[in-house]
Amino acid sequence: MSRLTLFSVRNRALIALATLFAVVAGLWSASALPRELFPSLQFPVLVVATPAQGSSASVVEEQVTKPVEIAAQGLNNVVEVQSTSADGFSSVVVELDYGTDMGSAQTDLQRAVLALPNLPDTATPQIFAGNLDDFPIIQLAAVGGEGVDEQDLVDRLERLVVPDIEDLDGVRAVTLSGVADRVVTVDLDEEEAADAGVTIPAVAQVLQANGVVMPGGTVLDGDTELPVQVGSRLTSVEEIAALPLLTPQVMGMQQAAAGEAQQAAEDAADASA
Questions:
Q1: Rounded to an integer, what distance in angstroms lies between the CA atom of residue 112 and that of residue 72?
Q2: Are 215 and 42 in contact (CB under 8 A)?
Q3: pTM above the 0.70 mark?
C-alpha cells in the first residue's frame, strides 16, 4: 500500500471530517455565486429598426427595407439577412458568424446605413446588437370588458398607455402586440355591377389607389421642419363604401369634358393669334 492509502486507513475519522468540510464548502460557494434571471449574453445578430411615419408598407419595402438589406449584405461574416416591412416601420435582422467583433460590425453597419442616399426624410434608422439586454423585461396585458370594441381598446392603448410608458426613464421601446388584424370583405352584386359596367379589377384598382398615405416632403415652420403627408387612410367601412367607382358612363363624361376643354383652349389660341 502507498503511504497516502495507509494514512487514510489509519485516520478514517480525519478523512471523513475533511470530506464533509469540502462538501459543505462547495455547497456554500455554489450558493454564493451571483445569479441572474437574464444574464448578459450577446448573440451575433444586428437589428436595423427604421420608423418611417406616413409611409405605406410598399413604400417602406422599396425605399427603406431593400436599401438597408443591400447595405447589410456588404458586411463581412454575414450568414443571413431577414426583413419585415409594415406601414411606417421597417425591420432588418442581420445574422453574423459566431466570434465576429460585434462592436466593429455594428459600427460598419451604421456607416453603411447612414451612407444610403435616397431614404425618405421621415426614416430614422436605429441599430441594435442582439443580446439578452434587449429582451422585454416587463409584459403587460390589457383586456376590455364585455361589450368593449377591440379596435377602440387598441386606439386607447396607442394614444394613452404606450406614450406614458415610453416617457419613463430607461425605457428604450414599447411594442404593442397580439392585436388581430381587421379584415374588410367587399362583396359585389354581380347583376348591379354588370348593369353599371363595373368590373372587379376596377373595384380593386379603386381600393388600391385610395386610403394610402405617402410622404410628400417637408415644410419649414420657423426653425422646425415638419413632414408633409399626401392622402389619408380609410378608417371605417362607411368610407370604403363611399368610394366613387369609374363606370364607362363616368369615363365618357370625363373624356367629353376633356375634349371640350381642349377645344376651348384651341379656340382661345386661335383668337389670340
A1: 8
A2: no
A3: no
Cell of 195: 348593369
Amino acid (1-letter code) at residue 153: L
Q: How far apart are CA 14 and CA 261, in angstroms?
A: 114
The contacts of residue 71 (CB under 8 Å, 6+ apart) are 109, 112, 113, 115, 116
Contact by Cβ (8 Å): 54, 213: yes
Cα 55 to Cα 67: distance, rounded to the nearest angstrom: 15
For the record, the C-alpha cell of 13 comes out as 475519522
CA distance 98 to 108: 17
Burial of 105 (0-12, 13-18, 19+ CB in 10 A): buried
Interatomic CA distance for residues 226 and 190, integer angstroms: 46
pLDDT in tens, 21-75: 999 988 888 888 777 665 666 678 898 988 887 778 888 898 999 999 999 998 8
User: Whose grid coordinates read 436605429?
Assistant: 126
The answer to whether the beta carbons of residues 213 and 229 sit under 8 Å apart is yes
Q: Where are the beta strands (DSSP E) in the chain?
A: 42-51, 78-86, 89-96, 126-131, 214-221, 224-230
78-86/224-230 β-pairing: unpaired
